Recover the amino acids of this structure.
């Protein structure tokens, strides 16, 4: 069974890799640009989107890019950069995004809602018994902590905070804000980054017990 699964997974990975490589090759992008008859703005938007997706897929282990493949794709994007200067728009977007994140509040939670969140985080063993209401007030209301709050379970915290995002009580960029403010630390004292939460979130995504336990608190917010 393990062997069959391994063969299937290897084959799937191979075809995913072929697709991921082909869609970013110079010939394919040129075809899409000419076929769609894109005007200047649409063309720039298309190249920005494709380049962003390419840089993301390069870090995905499912897409097995070979060195000569990335070299060929990078050369193709460089050609489009020389023609249209699309990377300047990426830098502008990144600058706008960073400016927006810098000014974003960590939460819209009220003083009255804090005890509910405090009880929720403790029951789900996301924070330790020693974490006080005052520390949560400093986090949610003032965004000023004397020291990071130690997190027992990154995935559960990400799950609960995503529910708060759904309720418009936190911004979707809470992970980036928390990283910049050094709000959270692991049990061994290491500062937690935004990527720590996004990587752990999928582990608890299908946890029915967590969903049931958290629902009674979320319904009260």
């Amino acid at each position: 069974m393990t062997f069959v699964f391994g063969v299937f997974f290897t084959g799937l990975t191979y075809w995913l890799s072929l697709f991921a490589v082909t869609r970013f090759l110079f010939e394919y992008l040129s075809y899409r640009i000419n076929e769609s008859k894109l005007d200047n703005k649409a063309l720039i938007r298309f190249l920005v989107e494709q380049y962003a997706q390419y840089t993301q897929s390069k870090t995905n282990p499912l897409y097995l890019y070979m060195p000569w493949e990335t070299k060929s794709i990078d050369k193709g994007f460089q050609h489009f950069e020389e023609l249209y200067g699309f990377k300047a728009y990426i830098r502008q977007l990144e600058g706008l995004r960073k400016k927006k994140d810098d000014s974003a509040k960590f939460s819209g939670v009220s003083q009255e809602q804090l005890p509910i969140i405090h009880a929720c985080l403790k029951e789900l063993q996301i924070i330790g018994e020693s974490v006080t209401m005052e520390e949560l007030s400093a986090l949610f209301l003032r965004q000023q902590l004397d020291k990071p709050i130690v997190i027992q379970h990154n995935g559960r915290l990400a799950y609960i905070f995503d529910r708060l995002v759904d309720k418009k009580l936190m911004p979707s960029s809470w992970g980036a804000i928390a990283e910049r403010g050094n709000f959270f630390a692991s049990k061994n004292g290491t500062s937690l980054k935004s990527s720590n939460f996004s990587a752990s979130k999928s582990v608890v995504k299908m946890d029915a017990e967590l969903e049931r336990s958290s629902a009674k608190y979320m319904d009260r917010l």
